[in-house]
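Structure ticket #2291
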Amino acid sequence: MNQPQHWYKALAGRQEIGNYRNLRINDSGVDFLSNDYLGMTGNKAFQQHLLELLNINPELLSGATGSRLISGNSPICMEVEESIAKRHQTESALLFPSGYKANLALFSCIAGRNQTILVDELVHRSVHDGCTLSYAQKRKFRHNDLNHLEYLLSRATGSVFIAVESLYSMDGDFAPLEDIITLAERYGAWVIVDEAHAVGVFGEGLVYRYNLQSRVLATVVTYGKAFGAQGAAVLGNRMLKEYLVNFASPFIYSTAMPDIQVLIISETYTFLEAHPYI
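Resolution: structure written out below.
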């Protein structure tokens, strides 16, 4: 069967400039490439603990059977979301299978026509893709540049949302969160903070550390990096959770996470709390 010609051209172009991607198994050795910041995926004590839980509760391995709005919700998922919200001192938490899907869900529905999302130029691709799915205008500001951000704020239309990361993985630098939030408050804008690379490494994250929960619209924490697991949670007030449950298509139309994945997140929080110097 013939394939679309533009596929051949696109792949050839990638090979020509040396950006062609392929799947491979990485050899063993010192880890300088993964997001497993705390080495949790190789922690034998934690693996043994999870194995014991599975031996007692083999039903955890079953799939969720459907969307959480139909048949996929579970007591474990509800309890873990409450526990996550309590740990981060927010009103609510909503779990997603990955940080990518959390950002896709959040940014695809928080803003509509005649509204604006301002994003730091170095935010994760998932934020950009979420904005693409929305009807809002997206504008990029120079990385950590408050002057450029204020310039865009002064010219933005409608409700304005600002997307930043608390810790940027590529350069390893921090966002000036308090300054960004103060600036946003001056213009009546809302701030959303992605903590993918901070949570776990800096406990519950930098929004928690600086007690900024009530001053941001949402925080995204992910579990595929320092936690060595999979999944993510969007943290905020109860209305945010209700809004996402009602309007976030990636949540509404996706099969729920299996309980084992949810439980691993919960157990990792507990393990890291008991082993702060891991």
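Closing remark: The longest helix spans residues 259-274.
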